[in-house]
Structure formats: C-alpha cells, structure tokens
C-alpha cells in the first residue's frame, strides 16, 4: 500500500463516515446486538456510541493503523470493552462459533473478496448468530440509469477511496456466503448521490 492508501484514505473515510446524517442509520443497524460482537471494517469507531447495553464486548477487525488511532477517543469512551484483534476480514484469527453477533457497516465495498469475508464471519458466529449489516452497493434493478452511472464511476471510486466498489450486490453476496436474510430495508441515503448511496440495511442469520 502507498502513502495515499495508508495515510490519506483512512482520514477521508473518517470524515465521510462521520457525517451527522449517518447517526440514525448506525443506531438502526446496531439495534438488537447482544453478547460478544465481532465488527469487521471497524474503521475509526463511528459505531461505538450506538452499541446497545446488551453488548458485552466488541472485537474490532481493522487493517488500518491510522483508522485505529483515529478511533482512540471513541474506544476509550466506549461503555463496553473494545479490542483490536484482526487485520483482515477474509481471514479471521478466531475459532469457529466464537461470537454471538457480527456487525458490518459500509465495509463490504472495499474488502477484495467480500464473499470470502462473509464466509469467515459465518464461521466464527455461533449457530443462530446474526450479522447486522449496513452496506452501499448496486442500485435496485429498476434503476438502470443509476446502475449505469455506478459502472462508469466505479474505476474512479476505487482509486480515490481505497478500492471501494459501487456495484457489489449486497444481498446476493450474503446469500452466497450461506446467510439467511431475516430483515432488509433497501433505500437511497438522504443527501447522498444515488450512485453512492444505494444502501441495504438489515440482519442475516447464520445457520
């Protein structure tokens, strides 16, 4: 990774993902989390204030040292223990059935092999564990004009934002990894360009 990817992108993401409008969405996706949680793509910790009281601990998977440092104040203020214990969502350093729940927010767009990462999440979840997800990706099928712009702009998006894809099909990836979708809301983020703000928010069950 070069200087831009290592030093600049985490700071851009910290600002972009810290906008006030994202707060209600983060609160929604964190609702119902309980027990020991693994959070992939922890970033700079913007979800920390929204962990419910039923969460007993959070294990953060975050490849960026800069991102983890930017999370420092939020981690110290957390109401539950938060520890960084992994760098790569595609290869989690935990035994099978280690966690009660998992959390992923605006993460699957940048992981090189997102389905492999989801399979890893499913592996470390206990049977019946839930993945709470909030991801942007491919626009709904009926919005072909938005999809066309997503395909055009994706190469630039990947260069500017650390490999971020605009066209990943979130639901299809989850089901391919063996999850069962139990709740789903598909919408465009208020105030965001449609090509960047086609979101899927919900929960998925591990068998």
From TrEMBL:
Keywords: Methyltransferase, Transferase. GO terms for biological process: methylation. The keyword Chloroplast does not apply. The keyword NAD does not apply. One of its GO terms (molecular function) is methyltransferase activity. Pfam families: Methyltransf_11 (PF08241). SUPFAM superfamilies: S-adenosyl-L-methionine-dependent methyltransferases. Residues 38-132 form the Methyltransferase type domain. InterPro entries: Methyltransf_11, SAM-dependent_MTases_sf, Thiol_S-MT. Its EC number is 2.1.1.-. It is an enzyme of class 2 (transferase). PANTHER family: METHYLTRANSFERASE LIKE 7A (PTHR45036:SF1), METHYLTRANSFERASE LIKE 7B (PTHR45036). This is Class I SAM-dependent methyltransferase. It comes from Streptomyces maoxianensis.
């Amino acid at each position: 990774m070069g200087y831009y990817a290592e030093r600049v992108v985490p700071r851009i993401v910290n600002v972009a993902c810290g906008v006030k409008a994202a707060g209600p969405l983060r609160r929604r996706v964190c609702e119902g989390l309980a027990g020991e949680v693994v959070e992939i793509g922890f970033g700079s910790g913007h979800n920390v204030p929204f962990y419910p009281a039923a969460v007993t601990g959070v294990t953060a998977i975050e490849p960026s040292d800069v991102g983890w440092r930017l999370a420092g104040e939020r981690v110290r203020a957390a109401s539950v223990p938060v520890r960084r214990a992994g760098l790569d969502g595609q290869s989690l350093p935990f035994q099978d059935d280690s966690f009660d729940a998992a959390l992923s927010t605006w993460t699957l767009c940048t992981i090189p092999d997102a389905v492999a990462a989801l399979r890893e999440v499913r592996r470390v979840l206990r049977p019946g564990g839930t993945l709470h997800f909030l991801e942007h990706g491919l626009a709904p099928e009926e919005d072909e004009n938005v999809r066309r712009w997503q395909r055009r702009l994706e190469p630039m998006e990947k260069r500017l934002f650390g490999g971020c894809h605009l066209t990943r099909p979130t639901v299809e990836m989850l089901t391919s990894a063996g999850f069962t979708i139990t709740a789903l809301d598909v919408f465009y983020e208020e105030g965001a360009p449609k090509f960047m703000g086609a979101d899927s928010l919900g929960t998925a069950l591990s068998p």
